[in-house]
Write a structure and sequence with these properties.
Helices cover about 55% and strands about 0% of the residues. It is an all-alpha fold. The chain has two domains: about 1-115, no CATH class; about 120-215, Serine Threonine Protein Phosphatase 5, Tetratricopeptide repeat (Alpha Horseshoe), CATH 1.25.40. Helix 1 crosses helix 4, helix 2 (about 55-65) runs antiparallel to helix 3 and helix 5 (about 105-115) packs antiparallel against helix 6. The protein starts with a helix and ends in a 61-residue tail after the last helix.
């Protein structure tokens, strides 16, 4: 289960990636508006085979907008299988799956696509956000760092905007991994890119939090040196000197105590 903050991050990333393309598809495929079917699209004769791929895609978009995510996925998948443009249909498939809380299914569509389109950083941001929503912090970080590098390179090369969403999500991942300084760096960069962005208020609140103090542990091999305590005015005891070489040192013996009588049995002393 994902918490509300992560769910907002996933849906927000999904919306920023594909909602505009879905709206364009719904209005720009040509032809009159299509009334959405109310019966199952899969019948014995498979009527989907009679529908052109672009029309399948368009109907899938409309079904998704009306909340019929199961049939929307069927139409969009049929469009992809019939050769419709993958860079358009894969984000639409992912959004339908995310909104239906089928996050693993969304990854099942996206990750094979990324293997053949590794520089599609907007889609990779979405994949990273889904891994984050599933609690896969390592996979999320891998995809998001990849997306951030590719997006920055594209921004330098083509003048495109740097992916602010990748910085925001990386900040969340690193915060969860207790890498506070690195997380704050990404949050600050997000604000530079999107000062009025969707997450700006949240990020400012995070950056206003005090940085927790992290004590530096003492290495096990290093032990503190014991310093003798000397009272004020006390005279230090002289150090014993070693006897000269060749000198035999004798240890004085203490005479045995006498009893009530002398050793010779005389009178007591």
């Amino acid at each position: 289960m994902i918490d509300r903050a992560l769910q907002r991050a996933v849906v927000g990333a999904c919306a920023s990636l594909s909602l505009s393309s879905l709206a364009l598809a719904a209005s720009g495929c040509g032809g009159p508006s299509v009334e959405v079917q109310t019966t199952s699209p899969a019948t014995a004769s498979d009527p989907l085979n009679e529908i052109p791929p672009a029309e399948l895609y368009r109907r899938g978009v409309i079904l998704g907008q009306h909340g019929d995510f199961v049939r929307a996925e069927q139409y969009l998948l049929a469009a992809r299988n019939r050769g419709f443009d993958e860079p358009r249909v894969i984000p639409a498939l992912m959004e339908v799956c995310v909104r239906a809380s089928r996050l693993s299914a969304a990854l099942g569509y996206a990750e094979p696509y990324l293997e053949s389109h590794p520089t599609d950083w907007p889609l990779r941001v979405l994949v990273g956000s889904i891994h984050l929503g599933l609690g896969h912090l390592g996979d999320a970080r891998t995809h998001l760092e990849h997306a951030q590098r590719d997006g920055q390179a594209a921004a330098t090369r083509d003048g495109r905007p740097e992916p602010a969403e990748a910085h925001y999500l990386l900040g969340i991942v690193m915060r969860e991994q207790a890498e506070i300084v690195e997380a704050r760096t990404h949050f600050a960069r997000y604000l530079e890119l999107e000062p009025e962005g969707t997450h700006a208020e949240e990020v400012r609140a995070i950056l206003d939090e005090p940085i927790p103090h992290q004590a530096t542990p003492v290495p096990p091999a290093v032990r503190p040196t014991t310093v003798p305590v000397r009272l004020p005015g006390a005279t230090p005891a002289p150090e014993a000197s070693a006897p000269p070489a060749g000198t035999t040192t004798t240890t004085p013996t203490t005479p045995a105590s006498k009893g009530p009588t002398g050793d010779d049995g005389g009178e007591p002393w």
